[in-house]
Amino acid sequence: MIMSRVAGLLGLLSGAFAYKALSDDGLRNIADPGDDFDIKSGALLAPILQPRVPGTPGSTAVLNHFVDFFQKELPDWELTFQNSSSRTPISGNDETPFVNLIATRDPPWAGQGHVGRLALVAHYDSKIDPPGFIGAIDSAAPCAMLMYAARSLDAALTRKWSAMEAEGVSELEEASGIQIILLDGEEAFKVWTHDDSIYGARSLAEEWDQTMHPAASTYRTPLDAIDLFVLLDLLGSANPTVPSFFRTTHWAYLNMANTEARLRSLKQLHTSPAHPFLRETNKKESDRWLGGAIEDDHLPFQARGVDILHMIPAPFPTVWHTMADDGEHLDIPTVKDWAKIVTAFSAEWMELDEYLLPPKKRSLLPEPDRTEL
Ligand SMILES: [Zn+2]
Questions:
Q1: Which one of 145, 178, 189, 360 is most buried, counting C-beta atoms within 10 A?
Q2: Chain-wide mean pLDDT for the chain?
């Protein structure tokens, strides 16, 4: 992404969605990531820490890592590839392929077009220059955080939806699902412009805007079905400060900040409470809002009216777009804390409080019956 001098227009105020804060026990039940984010052996993060320029073998290897993870560990998530290709400033007459991966989990009874979704988003491609660039904060670590969030919520989603089904629900009832969107082609190949950047996001937003749900659906298109687009970028350096960028989603920022504060007070985070990540909790209407000043994957979604929560530090971490943005320069306690904060926020959004189980007991309890559709 890039800092732009042009401030964008702010969207219209939009309605708030159902949201229920976790109890203290619920927050304690968000499992600690343990070794998942070890840069050499971490099951989630380590395989992403390699160059993954669109259309190269590294990109395919990382994509396969995501697919393997969902297929083996989270088989109830539906995987979708969204493909496109485009010329770039360095591709001559050839087209470079871009592959977005979307993992979706909806209530099993929900009819197509009746599910609104929390979308958790990061880009998985890496910058072509400098050669060998890893992009650990940009955005290998955010991708791993989203894998962790999906895995941490999966069993609770099953439990909640099984309980709802047992009570009886209609497929026409409005339902809430969750979606992990791993985008390709965020980085510019030469110099960031509107044509040389966010290739994957532009293609996905356009396609989802034009894909019509059946008539009489609650949501007109898959794009319309995104209740909130939470974009993680440049996360994993120590002492980040993430501003609240948009007045229209400040309510969601406040929920995320409250989750962070409560996790800290319950001693569930690893980093110092002296430097909270989300500190613009007293922001006023008349304060300066930076929405639009940072160009990133949210732009084509925002332009089509999607609500955006942009989780990106400002100022950017000092390693940004340098060879120092590698695994060794990640601050792992910060990576773990982001993973827990985003997971807890998502659990609150999906109203999973009583369905999260204490981490230690999880393996001792039988899985609830699953209804296959
Ligand atoms: Zn970048």
A1: 145
A2: 92
